[in-house]
Amino acid sequence: MEHEFAAELERQYGPLLGGEALRQALGYPSRASLRQAYYQQRIPIPVFKIPRRRGFFALTREVAQWLCAVRLKGTAERRAG
Question: How many domains is the chain partitioned into structurally?
Fold first, then answer.
C-alpha cells in the first residue's frame, strides 16, 4: 500500500511537497501553524528550506511513508482497544 500511495503522491506533486500541499498533507490547519511547528521542531518528518525559495519543503516519499505509518498505528490501536 505504501509504495502505491507514494507513487501516486509523486505523480501528483513531484518529488517535493511544499506550501499548501505540504500543509494539507501534514494536517496543519494553517500556514502559521505549520511555521510554528517548524520553529518548535515538532514536524514529524524532515522538513527543510531551499535557498532563494519561500517556505518549507519535504520529500513526497517521506510524507507518504509517515502518513502510512500513522494510519497503521491508528488501525492497530483501534483493534487492540
Answer: 1
Q: Can you say how many angstroms the Cα of residue 24 is from the centroid of all Cα atoms in its chain?
A: 8
- In DSSP terms, which residues pair with 19 in a beta bridge? none
Distances (CA, A) of 72 to 5, 11, 25, 48, 60: 13, 23, 16, 26, 18
Residue from 78, 29, 13, 23 nearest 56 by CA: 23
> Taking Cα atoms as reference points, which of 18, 72, 20 lies closest to residue 45?
18
Which residue range is the domain that position 67 belongs to?
2-80
Long-range contacts of 35-42 (CB under 8 A, 24+ apart): none
pLDDT tens for each residue of 2-57: 889 899 999 999 999 999 999 999 999 999 999 999 999 999 999 999 999 999 99
Give the whole-angstrom CA distance, residue 71 versus residue 45: 15
